[in-house]
Amino acid sequence: MFARISKYIIWGSYFYFSFLLLLITLQYIPYNTDVAFLRIKQDEIALDYYKIAFFTHVYTSIFLMILGFFQFSKTIKRKYINVHRWSGRVYAVIILFLSGPSGLVMSYHANGGIFSKTAFVILSVLWMSFTFLSVYFILKKDIINHQKFAIRSFALTLSAISLRLFKYIIVFLFHPQQMEAYRIVAWLGWTFNLLVAEIIIIYFISNKMKTRKINQ
Amino acid sequence: MLILVNIIGTMFDILHSTNLTHRIMKKIIYFALAISLFGCKDAIKTEVNNDFLIAENIKFDEPTINTNLTITTKADLLGYWVGQFTDDMPQNENEEEYIDEDFFGIDYEYNKKITFSIDKIKGTEIIGHSIVSGNIQKFKGKVTETPFTFEINVKEPGNEKSDGEFVLTIKKKDTLLSGKWNAFKVKENKINKRKLELSKKIFEYNPNNKIEDRFVDFHKSAIKKVEYDSEDSVGNPIKQSYDDEQYFTTTDTIFKINPSTEILKKELVENLSKGDVFILRNLIFARHGFAFRDKTLRGFFDYHSWYMPVFSDVTKDLTKIEKENVALLLRYEENAKEYYDHFGR
């Protein structure tokens, strides 16, 4: 019962925060280079390659939230494996060719100096690598490793939410200067997620392997 | 808004039609929809309206400034007269209100800075405008010359609630213009009698005028819990906390920055506090003699001896460096206001 309720809470908040991300995305529709986050990125947005990277990132990343839901629903995996496969392909293509590389370009220009730039560069490199490995292992039919890397990849996808959530919490509790908060969440936003991902991997996947061995 | 509902609606339709989920899943989506509609835009940002950028446009004759500070002839009166515009009501009548209005020792209403500008003198006729609290009002009246003094008696048009009549005198060969102001509408004004002591000042733009104090806005604060170690009655260590009220304020960094002479770098601005950015931007306007409408800014700059509120719009006077800095600072100010304590960014 408890597990069930917490499951609904998790999915509920997942959709709530995805919706907030959608609102953030909608700020940039119609195309406008002088709104929201871009107000403090005027030097960068003047660069053509940054402009392309930014809007690619903003317009494509939002779909990952819906696609990610298709990837991890057990019902879908069990009954509609084709939905899982196709949404997974789209998810991987978006990260490997659109969202990921554009994120890497943007991280080079991140606010907050070298400290946060490093964080975002590592984030985008890991994000693409994990996604690639997840695809690689499923092509090799290695489901366990596929799952491990898929969980890690999705954990980093969720940093879009956790970064903002951490910022909100930190500002609420400590009222730091704006950039200070940004530097902290640049690291905390994804390292925390990765930590949770590893815990999930250890508990769930190793449990699964045990039960599989018993069954054999 | 409708678009959002539609998007969520179709999302739900997809899930529904393919029969992917059970009834519960529907509930979750409805639940998510419900909260999101509640939160909506407020959750990601604060809507900011830029009313602080709009200046009222009252036309007045630019004064013909006469640089003589000591008055010997009528023409010497021309120019800006700056001084305190203080409450002159009988004490006891007002006592209760004094306590209400006096907030942490800051008197916004009872003691204001006034700029009394004499723009034109034609025979005995005198035309000018006054600037108080960022409000500009024209006046018209008579100036009479007696053997030892000049006497000025001018009236404001009377269309505003705060209009009134000035009666001022200055001795010949003196620099102090003093007198009284009486409101026309006695009942509508809490303070309907004021006295003035003005001295003539030549407005001069000086990009090196300095901020002399820390800015604190006592009306804007946030509560922060501060924890400290303590002991309970039997001596066990416990944690206790108190609420520390933190005000919107500036840090010492702003004393080192001059937004009128150096182009500010992005890296510098992003590390400033919200208060710093706010004051640095307004310092530029203050140096150009902008008459602030914002109570707290007025209070802050009024204490600076160099500050002279003479213009209602200074946008044309800003230098190229200043224009660039104002734009940059404003971008960060708005961004902080909109997104600082919100989920969005």
From TrEMBL, chain A:
Pfam families in UniProt: DUF2306
Positions of transmembrane segments: 9-29, 49-70, 90-108, 120-139, 151-175, 181-205
Keyword tags: Membrane, Transmembrane, Transmembrane helix
Signal peptide range in chain numbering: none
InterPro entries: DUF2306_membrane
Name assigned to this protein: Predicted membrane protein
TrEMBL record, chain B:
Residue stretches making up the YARHG domain: 252-334
Pfam families: YARHG
Domain of life: Bacteria
Protein name listed in UniProt: YARHG domain-containing protein
Naturally occurring in which organism (per UniProt): Flavobacterium terrigena
